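tool_log.txt
---
The assistant was asked to compare two proteins side by side. It first ran the structure predictor on the initial sequence, then on the second. Raw inputs and outputs are pasted verbatim so the downstream comparison step can read them without reformatting.
(1)
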Amino acid sequence: MNIVIILVITNFLKTLFFILVIWYGIKLFTKYIVPKMLHRTVKNMQSRVEDQFRQHQRPGRPEGDVTIEKNPNQSRNNNPKGEYVDFEEVD
């Protein structure tokens, strides 16, 4: 009977020890490693956005230069009178 009690207490303490090790492992992981991973992820995302921004800028144009770009797929209105606009009378 005494050996059974000793085994139960030993297994309980072993289980308690593993629970505490896992608990503190998770605490340390979330305190030190997760912020570094998030910082690295945010830095990578920021650099990607900056690269995309640079790609969309058009180099070589001086500031204030005006250009008109037309869409070649845009259909032209061939009506000689122009486009009809319906106006409302204002009292």
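(2)
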Amino acid sequence: MLPLSNYGVKSMSMGYLVGEEAPVVWRGLMVMKALQQLLHDVEWGGLDVLVLDLPPGTGDTQLTVVQQVALDGSYPREKEGEREQWADYK
């Protein structure tokens, strides 16, 4: 798969692949498979930074990322209102 590219920024989303009117209920294994496809089947080329917008959940998705991708670092961010979830994490 080829990512969309605009102003030198590449992007790929399951939202690009699923119809706008087609609701999708993401379950654990479906999220993992989609993540694997986006990480390994998209022709990213060389990247300086990879930004992932992950669904809320138990952290299984984040664990999959760190197991499958060699990371130099990470910068976790939360949406407004999710700050309490990170309070126990820090």
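---
observation on (2): The CA atoms of residues 55 and 61 lie 8 Å apart. The chain has a mean pLDDT of 79.
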